Amino acid sequence: MKELKPKSMEDVIAGISLYRPGPMDFIPSISRGKNHPETITYDCPQLEPILEPTYGCIVYQEQVMQIVQKLAGRLRKQGKKACPAVSPEASTSRWPTRFTTI
Questions:
Q1: What is the pLDDT along the chain (102 residues), one digit of tens a residue?
Q2: Can you spell out the DSSP letters for the chain?
Q3: d(CA 98, CA 102)
Q4: pLDDT the model gives residue 17
């Protein structure tokens, strides 16, 4: 938490969410983006409103669902199916068949 230097409740919540396998790897990126916003880049402009609160990194499952919904044109319910597929324990066999085209 010291590295993130939280200044708002949203920063504290994101910081707590980062301390689990997977997102923990993003701590340096989020810290850098928070302290130097000019270093944040987005792979496409549609991701900016979704990832802006977490300084360009995917931290929450809700962000995965929003990205699937926005970029793939899928329904929110279908976006939920993508969350287990991108978890650290996921293997390619866990991808829902409907998402093989994403």
A1: 777 778 888 888 888 888 877 778 888 888 888 889 899 998 889 999 999 988 888 888 888 888 888 887 766 566 556 655 555 555 444 444 444 444
A2: -TTT---SHHHHHHHHHHSSTTGGGGHHHHHHHHH-GGG---SSGGGHHHHGGGTTS--SHHHHHHHHHHHH---HHHHHHHHHHTSTT--GGGS-GGGTT-
A3: 9
A4: 83
The widest CA-to-CA distance across the chain, in whole angstroms, is 42
Q: How far apart are CA 16 and CA 18, in angstroms?
A: 5
Whole-number Å distance between alpha carbons of 36 and 40 = 8
Question: Tokens 């993130």 label which residue?
Answer: 4
